[in-house]
Every structure is written in structure tokens, then in C-alpha cells.
Amino acid sequence: MSVSKSAPFSIIIPARYASTRLPGKPLLDIKGKPLLQHVFDTATNSQAKSITIATDDDRIAKCAESFSAKVVMTSTDHESGTDRIAEAVTLLELDDDEIVVNLQGDEYGLPVTLINQVAECLYNNPDKQMATLCEPITNLDDYNDPNTVKVVFDHDNTAIYFSRSPIPMRRSGGLPDHVYRHVGLYAYRAGYLQEFTRLPACELEQTEALEQLRVLYNGGKIHVNIAVDKTGIGIDCIADLELARSEK
Q1: Are 241 and 28 in contact, with CB atoms under 8 Å apart?
Q2: How far apart are CA 105 and CA 91, in angstroms?
């Protein structure tokens, strides 16, 4: 899947030094390069017209500048990567209708096709404020795991709900057909990002600890598409880091 040349998009990579399980995560070495550089290199192979790393830490900024990445310094007060991206959108003076892809700074080995796909999904659905991806869940352990976020969507690929609970649940038990894991890759329209970050966190979002529920609670629409490729490794813990380092 490719993005039309009439539909340019920008990538912003939020990166912070603080991490409960892996302090300094963006700077951790994987096969001779910091994790952040691996993510940036993936972004450079996409059809994005610009790539920016948004951080609040000088160590990350210096690292990014060492491989010639564009950097914007943001506030230290942000509670989420989305808030950091929203500030970066303001600093970069992006037009309200520009498509912005949020590429997390810990997404190692993410296929570039997925970046292009999520941008195209939003471009092709002008009635939606955001777009994201999912992939089929094929085993019961993942289905029941609260760390695996599930998504349910309608006939028009519009998100109905995201949850850490096993949804949809078959009354008779077992793994239902057509159950999907949410892939945390987002495309937004720049203007909506500003609106979203001004909305207060809703009870559903706080209960599930899922920021995207704020969009649905306030009447926004999220387009959900099945990923055209397998996803990479989100580096969240030591085991993820060791897996990435051991891959050939």
C-alpha cells in the first residue's frame, strides 16, 4: 500500500529519557546503533515529507543530532507522547489539515509499509480524526492478556471500543473469530491533535489506561485498518531488548 503523492504526511517521533523499566531507552544500543536511530532510519524509508524527533532531554537531542535528525525541544511537563507531539506540531507550525504520524521512539523493526498505510488510511477517510492499525489475535493467551489491547470496529472500519479485557467475548468461551490486537501506530490531522490535548481525560480512559478512548468518548472517529505486514518489537522491557539484540 502506498500513499498518493497528493497526500504528504509528516512523522514526529516522541522520545523521552525517563522510563520505569528501561531508563534512557532511546539511547540503548542495538547492534551498534541506539534504538532511536533504528526508529529514525525506518522513518527515512517511508514516504514522509519530514521527520522530527520531539524530546525534552538534551542527551536524546545530542544523540539525534549525531545522525543528522531534526529535533524540537518540548516541555518536561507532558504526560504522554501525544501531548509532546501536539506541542511539536505548534513549534513546527504545521497546517491544521496536515497528516501527522506518531512513530513511537521504541518501535524497533517496524515495517515501513505500516507507516505509509496508516497515513493513507487517514487521507482516504476525511470524516475521521485519526487512523490506526490492528492485527489478528491467534491464541488465547494474547486474547486474555491485559497488556494486549483489543479493538472492535464496525462495518466501516470505525473503532467502536478499545479494551484490555478480552473483547468481543464468545458466550460459550474460547477464542472468537475475528478478534484483533491494536497496533499502537497513529495518524492524526494536526488541527485535531490540538483539540484532543485540550480535552480532559475521561473516566473510561482512566479506567483502561488507554488514551484513545478519550477520542471515542468525545464523539471522535478513529479509522482502524488491518496491518498489511507483521509488526516489529516494541521495546518495553529487558526481554524485548534482548530479543531485538539477538535477532539476525
Answers
A1: yes
A2: 19
**At 8, is the secondary structure helix, strand, or coil?**
coil
Backbone angles phi and psi of 202, in degrees to 5: -95, 170
With CA atoms as reference, report the closest residue to 140 among 178, 175, 172.
Answer: 175
Give the tens place of pLDDT for each residue, 23-47.
Answer: 889 999 999 999 999 999 999 999 9
Domain boundaries of the chain, sorted by first residue: 9-246
Q: Comparing C-alpha atoms, which of 131, 130, 97 is closest to residue 8?
A: 97
Helix residue spans in 52-159 (DSSP H):
58-66, 81-92, 112-123, 140-144
SS3 for 62? helix
Pick the CATH number of 9-246 from 3.90.550.10, 3.40.50.1000, 3.30.200.20, 2.30.130.110: 3.90.550.10
* pLDDT of res. 20: 73
Residues 46 and 7: beta-carbon distance below 8 Å: no
235: closest CA among 38, 35, 45? 35
pLDDT digits (tens, 9 = 90+) for 63-119: 999 999 999 999 888 888 899 999 999 999 999 999 999 999 888 889 999 999 999
